[in-house]
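2 proteins. here.
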Amino acid sequence: MKKKREEIVTFKADASLVEAMKGISNRSEFIRNAILLSLDSTCPLCRGSGLLTPDQKTHWKNFLLDHSITECRKCHERHLVCSHRPGKVAGKVKHHPPSRG
């Protein structure tokens, strides 16, 4: 079995970022973990750009016909709610009851 070859990736950092990272003993590991965490938390639609293409907007509008965005009463985070499955989120038990209003 062939061993995966690692690649070196470089990026520019301004002086304030370099200064903030001075106390980190293993910067490479810290940056790898930060990137992986960020990728895991990226919006699946826009992939972190913050913008939807015209086609994505059409799909989103169709999706919203049977779904809504609701704020959780307990943690105040916004989440999707399916109108066909009240009280359930993606087949799992809901996190908290949706807020009313």
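next one coming up
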Amino acid sequence: MTDPRHATDNFAVYPLSGLPEGAAATVVGLPKGRRAYSRLVNMGLKIGSEVQVVRNSIGGGPVLLATGLTRLAIGRGMARQVTVRSARA
């Protein structure tokens, strides 16, 4: 049985923290840790969510996302654990 938090099938995935500002993507994997997973789901981020990177500073700091009408700020460490597929794929 596959873990529903990592629905990566046969396409290239990237960490959310690596996307440039303005990039759109689909969430395909969430952290395996129960606390991090629950926190993201409670914020409204789940497998299949369409997100757009609003701010991703090279110097560090949180990654700011837009998903629907909601904006989320996710710490860089947690953003590295979220995997996404580019909207162009």
